[in-house]
């Protein structure tokens, strides 16, 4: 008999979809559906998760613990029991700490699962053992910094309001490929209200293809477009002076500055025409219910925080926050206010323990002093939910670090990834269908509940079980190590006044929707003084603020093309991969085919690229080789390569992220994945 069990998607995607999973046996699923009664998911999930059976029942899943037997990186392992593996890890961590101090151990995580317990529970180990902590920057930090600079806290209107908008601007995101649920609400507005969809991006994505108003600009130039739009509103007299006076720090100096950022100035930077910029600004100014849905893509640039800050100035100048279906939304990160003291052992956090930057793992592991924050070298790691050898920037340096002879690396993984191949001890991890957890709906207002659906696969363990077992062996003393995942979730919800785990699992989610006035900041922005800041305090946001502008502006701090590197590379997600998750499933591989460079036909002709031939692309960090395709949907000088293909899919065994800089993005870190200068030539 096929049962439908409620669960939630754990993947690194703001939709955190509420799911209904067909269970056809205690250890087997059928198709995965979106929960029909969840008001955000509305029965829709992406194709890759709908076919999750391909992933959970994949023959390549790791089945048992293994110990390295060959040279580092050779990928030769022998089976070992869980007890022996955990004893060996505990002994190695203890010895490392005795030799160098506890901060030499770095429990490391990324976004392979986004659950409260299974992702972040590793903090309990960090805090109780005084191990190095982690600043998690790889995804969101440039965008987050830009939003905090102007608006303040990471909250905002309920994105379901898009269905009540008359103009929706998707800025720097590609929801058709990466967050399909956004399109559900956008299409409702288009059908029921005749709303227009505008999409701003640096290449013709599938979402741009669906737009009424497609705006394809040069990568990294978004702030110039936003500033020029504000200039037009000020010149035309369509700025909302009352809103600016009551709820922002707008003053004559800001006005003078923005009036100088004319469409003519922006046209040179963006590659758009002046008429396109003026028309877009006037459409925005003339639409009360104008909703800007901000993506991550346009902020993955060295000037990304400044770009986000400039774009968030638009609804302030236009007073769009006043209206149902108006304003802007990025992510809900500060909406939850959960009591996580037991789950993360916050009572044991020593603020003096160092914090290492997740994105700078290459610099950390190769011993760059600033990356080590004045502490000892990292000589022992536990990596969960992380395929950093493939996904982190400057991946040649990451690999060099991970293969150091004096570094003991434990990788807890579902598949034999590039990072797993570099482990000293490799542990098999459960997938979300095999455990309980709660997931932040960063792209909406609900905490979704993912209860266990399947029996455990082979000898796999959950992240939580590994943390608890290691904690006990290491002598970590905290009640959280003695609780099941469900007990921790229950404790967290109850302590936060949000019901129980049983209630959440039965309903499928916990609703955190804020009232309209609060969500639209009409009682004040979450900033000192309650005002949106056109003049941000960048220094308060992070240490790398020096080159950021005092007011909304285009910051010319990108990795500029030059004679030796005349192209700008953008490396966005592929539709059916999610970072390197799903790169193993047959249907995703069949759709994405192979790494491909999208090259403008004028550039291809100039370079004499032959149809069906291969190209080489590189810079001082490395070189890659792939097929290319002629593509008119970008500006000449831009090259796009979609998807983080596994290193094993590339000639030479290293992928696209070897070309990406590992330098921290201003002001608080993060990665400039779409801001890379490269050369390009035909490959023989
Ligand atoms: S859209 Fe995002 S959250 Fe929803 S099922 Fe797909 S990956 Fe998961």
UniProtKB/TrEMBL annotation:
TM regions (residue ranges): none
InterPro entries with a match to the protein in the record: Asp_de-COase-like_dom_sf, MoPterin_dinucl-bd_dom, Mopterin_OxRdtase, Mopterin_OxRdtase_4Fe-4S_dom, Prok_Mopterin_Oxidored
A Pfam entry, by short name: Molybdop_Fe4S4
PROSITE patterns assigned: 4FE4S_MOW_BIS_MGD
Occurrences of domain 4Fe-4S Mo/W bis-MGD-type (ranges): 2-60
The family this protein is said to belong to: Belongs to the prokaryotic molybdopterin-containing oxidoreductase family.
PANTHER family assigned to the protein according to its UniProt record, in alphabetical order: OXIDOREDUCTASE YYAE-RELATED (PTHR43742:SF6), TRIMETHYLAMINE-N-OXIDE REDUCTASE (PTHR43742)
Protein name: Molybdopterin-dependent oxidoreductase
Source species taxonomy: Bacteria, Pseudomonadati, Pseudomonadota, Alphaproteobacteria, Rhodospirillales
């Amino acid at each position: 008999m096929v049962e439908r069990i409620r669960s939630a998607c754990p993947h690194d995607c703001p939709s955190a979809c509420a799911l209904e999973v067909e269970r056809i046996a205690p250890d087997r699923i059928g198709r995965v559906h979106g929960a029909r009664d969840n008001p955000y998911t509305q029965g829709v999930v992406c194709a890759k998760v709908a076919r999750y059976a391909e992933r959970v029942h994949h023959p390549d899943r790791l089945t048992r613990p293994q110990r390295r037997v060959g040279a580092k990186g050779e990928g030769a392992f022998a089976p070992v029991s869980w007890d022996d593996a955990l004893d060996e890890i505990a002994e190695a961590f203890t010895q490392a700490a005795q030799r160098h101090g506890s901060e030499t151990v770095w429990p490391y995580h990324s976004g392979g699962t986004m659950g409260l317990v299974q992702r972040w529970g590793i903090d309990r180990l960090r805090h109780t053992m005084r191990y190095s902590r982690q600043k998690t920057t790889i995804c969101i930090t440039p965008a987050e910094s830009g939003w905090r600079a102007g608006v303040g806290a990471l909250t905002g209107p309920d994105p379901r309001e898009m269905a009540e908008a008359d103009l929706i601007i998707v800025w720097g995101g590609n929801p058709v490929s990466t967050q399909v649920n956004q399109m559900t609400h956008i299409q409702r507005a288009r059908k029921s209200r005749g709303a227009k969809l505008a999409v701003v991006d640096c290449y013709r994505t599938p979402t741009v293809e669906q737009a009424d108003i497609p705006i394809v600009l040069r990568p990294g130039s978004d702030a110039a477009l936003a500033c020029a739009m504000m200039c037009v509103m000020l010149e035309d007299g369509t700025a909302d002076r009352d809103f600016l006076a009551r709820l922002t720090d707008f003053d004559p100096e800001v006005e003078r500055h923005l009036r100088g950022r004319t469409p003519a100035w922006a046209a040179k930077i963006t590659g758009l025409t002046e008429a396109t910029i003026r028309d877009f600004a006037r459409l925005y100014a003339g639409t009360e219910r104008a909703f800007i849905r901000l993506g991550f893509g346009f902020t993955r640039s060295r000037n990304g925080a400044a770009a986000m800050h400039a774009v968030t100035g638009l609804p302030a100048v236009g007073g769009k926050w006043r209206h149902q279906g108006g304003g802007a939304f990025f992510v809900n990160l500060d909406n939850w206010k959960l009591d996580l003291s037991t789950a993360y052992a916050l009572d044991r956090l020593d603020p003096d323990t160092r914090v290492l930057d997740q994105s700078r793992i290459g610099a950390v592991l190769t011993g760059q002093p600033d990356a080590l924050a004045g502490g000892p070298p990292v000589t022992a790691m536990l990596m969960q939910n992380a395929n950093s050898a493939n996904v982190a920037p400057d991946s040649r340096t990451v690999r060099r670090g991970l293969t150091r002879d004096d570094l003991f690396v434990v990788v807890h993984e579902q598949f034999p990834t590039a990072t797993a191949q570099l482990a000293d001890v490799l542990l098999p991890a459960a997938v979300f269908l095999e455990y309980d957890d709660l997931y932040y709906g960063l792209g909406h207002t609900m905490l979704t509940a993912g209860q266990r659906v399947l029996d455990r696969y082979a000898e796999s363990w959950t992240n939580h079980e590994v943390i608890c077992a290691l904690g006990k062996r290491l002598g970590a003393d905290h009640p959280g190590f003695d609780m099941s995942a469900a007990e921790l979730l229950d404790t967290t919800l109850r302590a936060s006044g949000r019901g129980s785990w049983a209630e959440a699992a039965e309903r499928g989610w916990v609703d955190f929707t804020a009232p309209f006035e609060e969500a639209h900041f009409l009682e004040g922005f979450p900033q000192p003084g309650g005002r949106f800041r056109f003049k941000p305090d960048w220094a308060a946001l992070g240490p790398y603020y020096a080159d950021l502008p005092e007011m909304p502006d285009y910051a010319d701090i990108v990795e500029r093309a030059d004679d030796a590197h005349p192209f700008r590379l953008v490396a966005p997600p592929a539709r059916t991969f999610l970072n390197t998750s799903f790169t193993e499933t047959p249907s995703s591989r069949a759709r994405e085919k192979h790494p491909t460079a999208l090259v403008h036909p004028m550039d291809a002709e100039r370079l004499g690229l032959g149809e069906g031939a291969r190209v080489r692309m590189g810079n001082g960090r490395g070189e890659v080789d792939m097929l290319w395709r002629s593509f008119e949907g970008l500006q000449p000088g831009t090259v796009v390569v979609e998807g983080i293909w596994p290193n094993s899919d590339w000639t030479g065994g290293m992928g696209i992220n070897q070309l990406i800089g590992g330098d921290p993005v201003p002001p608080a870190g993060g990665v400039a994945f779409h801001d890379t200068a490269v050369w390009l030539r035909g490959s023989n």
